[in-house]
Amino acid sequence: MSTSKTIKSALISVFHKDGLAPIVQKLNELNVTIYSTGGTEKFIKELGINVIPVEDVTSYPSILGGRVKTLHPKVFGGILNRQDHEGDIAEMQEYNIPQIDLVIVDLYPFEKTVASGASEQDIVEKIDIGGISLIRASAKNFKDTFTVSSMEQYDAFLDILSKNNGETTIAQRKKFAAKSFNISSHYDTAIFNYFNEDELVYKVSESTSKTLRYGENPHQKGYFFGDLEAMFHKLHGKELSYNNLLDVDAAVNLMNEFIGEAPTFAVLKHNNACGFAQRNSIKQAYLDALAGDPVSAFGGVLISNSEIDAETAEEIHKLFCEVVIAPSFSEEALTILKGKKNRVLLVQKTTDLPLQNVRTALNGLLVQDKDAKTDTVEDLTYVTNTKPTENELKDLLFASKICKHTKSNTIVFTKNNQLLASGTGQTSRVDALRQAIEKATSFGFDLKGAVMASDAFFPFPDCVEIAGKAGITSVIQPGGSIKDQLSIDYCNANNLSMVMTGTRHFKH
Question: I need a labelling partner for 36 at 20 to 30 A (CA). Which of 163, 247, 384, 478 fits?
Answer without folding.
Answer: 163
